Amino acid sequence: MELRLYDTLSREKRTFVPLDANNVRMYVCGPTVYDFAHIGNARPVIVFDVLFRLLRHLYGETHVKYVRNITDVDDKINDRAARDFPGLPLNEAIRKVTEQTGKQFHADVDALGALRPSVEPRATEHIAEMREIIEKLVAGGFAYAAEDHVLFSPQAMNAANSVLPRYGALSNRSLDEMVAGARVDVAPYKKGNTDFVLWKPSKPGEPSWPSPADIKVEGRPGWHIECSAMAWKHLGEHFDIHGGGIDLVFPHHENEVAQTCCAFHRERMANYWMHNGFLQVESEKMSKSLGNFITIHELLADWPGEVLRLNMLKTHYRSPIDWTMKSLEESAKTLDDWYRVAADVVPGEPAASVVEPLLDDLNTPQAIAALHGLRGEATALSGSLRLFGFLSESAAQWEGRKQQASGVDAKEVERLIAERTAARSRKDFKESDRIRDLLAAMGVAIKDSKEGTTWEIAR
Ligand code: AMP
Ligand code: ZN
């Protein structure tokens, strides 16, 4: 069985062949930590967690290295720090914002059942690597300093007659068209209107570091160079998989490729470029102004993380996803059922019927359909669900949490059920119906069988 992955660069599904099967390497762009992560941000986290788990299953747990960065230097962070901590010096305020948001992000993604990546590098801890790449780019004639900025020239890259890829290849754009379509009010220090920033001067009070390229004033990195530096430090000049949301293909990933390939004279940065589709809410684009902006944190107050995880994986990662309440309710019911059947059994090997669709470019909807088909084989279901990152709790913990969340008092329910059983045995059906309706009004569903009466929270 071989793994096939869709590669954004070649625009086709290709058999995955790692550069080194003992050290399979994947980089995914992580969050910019200035606010609660929204449910759209959860999509790459969950999708690439499934891939991480699958790669570990195929190549062995210790043979996969997954790097997901934390962007902790950014204008949005500076703005938030100034707004939330006006009394503090900006740098201290920034540290507070990134610490709090980083912790919140971890709490959220842990609850979603995502394994921690092997390394979570922070941009501010890789400034030396960024400077080193920038120096290489300047020395190679791909970048230049102007008015205390360092700029990368895509035109210099495409004029170089060498192994380098073509700027624009990843996002399938032509540089000539980009040049023709560029904004007219380009910053005066740019030689070409598609040149992008590698380094810029810091304003007073902003985080700053000694600059590269003989620039005398202190400065800070541009966004794209951060990922080139962190990927290089932890995965090398050339690695297997680079991922992120589809919105990152241009300019972020196009620029990452340009920086890394030009600095190291490489034909490629990553062998497979993978991008998840976008998430919208109840058929609308999620945005603060539309009032349908949902954070992971808010959703976790109402739903177990595994429900959010299943709900995300019901759609193939490259398709757009419509996040709806109805679909969440269905996902919750499915998990209730799986917990009852499979949570407390000793897991077997994941079933081939589940693994095979995953090997076909992470076809999670088909794998989930196969899980439904395994209901009669509890050990295989249990093992397969665990490969997906489900069943982190026992059946009792799952049910208990649901009761807690619903505010239902289990003792009171048991007492009412005993009363109803007594009423039924004396054939007082009026009373037994009254108690059943009372329980239903409390949100409790009951089921009578030969063994007695069982109950659960009706979602
Ligand atoms: P950001 O913090 O905005 O850079 O986003 C972090 C990650 O979330 C990136 O991989 C984005 O592509 C991804 N992302 C942001 N919004 C959405 C969305 N609505 N749907 C899917 N992915 C998203
Ligand atoms: Zn990135």
Describe this entry's structure for a reader.
The protein is of the alpha/beta class. It folds into 3 domains: 4-279, Rossmann fold (3-Layer(aba) Sandwich), CATH 3.40.50.620; 323-397, Four Helix Bundle (Hemerythrin (Met), subunit A) (Up-down Bundle), CATH 1.20.120; 407-457, no CATH class. Helix content is 46%, strand content 15%. It is built from 17 helices and 14 strands. It has helices at residues 39-59, 75-84, 90-111, 127-139, 154-159, 175-181, 223-235, 249-264, 296-302, 305-313, 325-342, 352-359, 364-373, 378-387, 395-406, 410-425, 429-441, and strands at residues 4-7, 12-15, 24-28, 64-68, 143-146, 149-152, 196-201, 219-221, 239-245, 270-276, 279-281, 321-323, 444-449, 452-457. A 4-stranded parallel sheet has the order 4-3-9-10, with helices on both faces. Strands 5-6-7-8 form a 4-stranded antiparallel sheet. Strand 1 and strand 2 form a beta hairpin. Helix 4 packs across helix 8 (249-264), helix 7 (223-235) crosses helix 8 (249-264) and helix 12 runs antiparallel to helix 13. The model has no long low-confidence stretch (mean pLDDT 95). Bound molecules: adenosine monophosphate and zinc ion. Adenosine monophosphate binds next to helix 1 and strand 9.
